[in-house]
């Protein structure tokens, strides 16, 4: 499936802009999963099955799997999502950024090994570091633009020919890198004014928006700044607030309720 087609269908058919981030931390798992060799897969699969009809996409963060030598469980998780919940896009949050043959291998890892539908990429090393991902025109390439962390301003607010660096990135991606229509940008919910500026520069390009929930981003301000005229255009990510909403054997039910509450809060401002 083409990532953008699947994302657009999920926005409409599920009436949801919610992206659930899959950041598994075994130390926070319910007691009945502790010590299981497949605990990460079991935990994440249960979250996925409980929330898939409520989301526009899932976003597994690769570091949470790799740190526990669970890359095989990440592969199995993405396969599970595609098999059990067809049409649900998976964004691999890897923030890769390298050049030449190394970038080519990262693209193979994301799209051929893990079979992700999109990947987050750091554009700091320029166009040739992004080309290997763009060579997969049916896959989403979501580039860091205005990130949700406070330190992002150290570089992203630097003046570049009369534009802030994040504005330059947004314009560059929208005007020069998006020939296949498969690019998106990461813009944090903690900076709604910058979301509005990126929307102004990029038209209806999809924006992946971290920072609501545990990071404190404001849902109403995010929607006012970033939604398109159709009321879509956003993948609003929540991770910890949904994953760890419950601590017992009913953790998946608690996650579903948290996802419903978050989706409904988002939709109230669409």
From TrEMBL:
Q: Which UniProt keywords apply?
A: Decarboxylase, Lyase, Pyrimidine biosynthesis
Membrane-crossing residue ranges in chain numbering: none
Gene3D superfamilies referenced in this protein's UniProt entry, alphabetically:
Aldolase class I
Question: Can you state which reaction this protein catalyses?
Answer: orotidine 5'-phosphate + H(+) = UMP + CO2
Q: Provide any one GO MF term from the record.
A: orotidine-5'-phosphate decarboxylase activity
Q: What class of enzyme is it?
A: lyase
Origin: domain of life: Bacteria
Lyase in keyword set? yes
Active-site feature positions: 95
Instruction: Please give one Pfam family short name.
Output: OMPdecase
Pathway(s) this gene product operates in, as recorded in its UniProt entry:
Pyrimidine metabolism; UMP biosynthesis via de novo pathway; UMP from orotate: step 2/2
Its EC number is 4.1.1.23
Q: Which GO terms describe its biological process?
A: 'de novo' pyrimidine nucleobase biosynthetic process; 'de novo' UMP biosynthetic process
Q: Does the keyword Lyase apply?
A: yes
**Domain Orotidine 5'-phosphate decarboxylase, chain residue ranges per copy:** 17-255
> To which protein family does this belong?
Belongs to the OMP decarboxylase family. Type 2 subfamily.
Would you tell me the protein name for this molecule?
A: Orotidine 5'-phosphate decarboxylase
State the organism of origin.
Parazoarcus communis SWub3 = DSM 12120
Q: Lineage of this protein's species?
A: Bacteria, Pseudomonadati, Pseudomonadota, Betaproteobacteria, Rhodocyclales
**Gene designation:** pyrF
């Amino acid at each position: 499936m083409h990532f953008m087609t699947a994302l657009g269908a999920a926005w409409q058919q599920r009436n949801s802009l919610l992206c659930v981030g899959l950041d598994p931390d075994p130390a926070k798992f319910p007691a009945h999963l502790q010590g299981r060799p497949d605990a990460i897969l079991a935990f994440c699969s249960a979250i996925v099955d409980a929330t898939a009809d409520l989301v526009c996409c899932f976003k597994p963060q690769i570091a949470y799997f790799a740190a526990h030598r669970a890359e095989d469980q990440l592969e199995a998780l993405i396969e599970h999502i595609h098999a059990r919940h067809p049409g649900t896009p998976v964004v691999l949050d890897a923030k890769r950024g390298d050049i030449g043959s190394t970038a080519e291998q990262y693209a193979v890892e994301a799209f051929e090994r893990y079979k992700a539908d999109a990947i987050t990429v750091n554009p700091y090393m320029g166009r040739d570091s992004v080309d290997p991902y763009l060579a997969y025109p049916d896959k989403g390439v979501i580039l860091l633009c205005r990130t949700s962390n406070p330190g992002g301003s150290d570089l992203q607010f630097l003046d570049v020919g009369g534009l802030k660096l994040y504005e330059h990135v947004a314009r560059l991606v929208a005007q020069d890198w998006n020939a296949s229509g498969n690019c998106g940008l990461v813009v944090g919910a903690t900076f709604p004014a910058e979301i509005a500026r990126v929307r102004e520069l990029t038209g209806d390009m999809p924006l992946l928006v971290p920072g609501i929930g545990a990071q404190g981003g404001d849902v109403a301000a995010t929607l006012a700044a970033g939604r398109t005229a159709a009321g879509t255009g956003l993948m609003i990510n929540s991770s910890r607030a949904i994953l760890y909403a419950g601590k017992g054997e009913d953790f998946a039910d608690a996650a579903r309720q948290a996802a419903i509450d978050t989706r409904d809060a988002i939709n109230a401002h669409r």
